[in-house]
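Rather than argue in generalities, we reproduce a single protein record, letters for residues, whole numbers for local backbone shapes, just as it appears below:
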Amino acid sequence: MGDGGILELGAPALAPRSAPRHVALIMDGNGRWAAARGLPRFEGHRRGVDALRKTVRAAIELGVDYLTVYSFSVENWSRPPEEVQSLLALLHRFIRNDLAELQGNNVRVKVIGAREDLAAEIAALLREAEQTTAANTGLTLVVAFNYGARQEIAAAARALAEEVAAGRLRPQDIDAEAIARRLDTADMPDPDLIIRTSGEQRLSNFMLWQAAYAELLFVPVHWPDFSRADFEAAIDEYAQRDRRFGGLAPVDCRAKTAS
């Protein structure tokens, strides 16, 4: 992804912000950021990696447990070949340059997305990142690579169908929990907060199942300009929201009695 490393991590978590346990990011706007400055799209992606480094640092310091980043979707393969190659080169550079820093700061890397048809070199890089950091107990950095939510749900449905056909599962035992256990995110909590940059207001095939009760926040800045202050503002906005998960807000009996 970009040159350099994630520096000066490891400051104590800042509990007073009541950070969400799991934040997911749709890092949008790299190309538009570059176009507005007369730069090639690759430069927007490179600067986007710098923004990711800052956000990882902030997530650690603010006490976030999981940070999921939408790094490469299944639809991204349809982009011009030169842009796809640039994105893959950035992934390679990111793992080579930043993995030691992540490991040193107790960050665990988890990759979600389909791997069956990936080039051997890319698949090996993803495995290396996961295996090197597997024992770490701090922030889990979840990299959604070659990921698509519809494809993920379809794969879970296929797995269930195969189990039913093999007689290992009864159709009546298939419920929401059975599906969730077969998703890429089975061992993680659902995102509490999903942030999309660049002003677009859609999920674009990202964590559709897991987003059922997530708070959504759409910010106007392009991803390369996304700062620690923007991330902290998103956390503060999340803290002000009333999450009811389909239920009713608790009644304040004291206020009712006084009225």
DSSP finds eight helices and six strands in the chain. Strands lie at 22-26, 66-73, 108-112, 140-147, 193-196, 215-218. The radius of gyration is 20 Å.
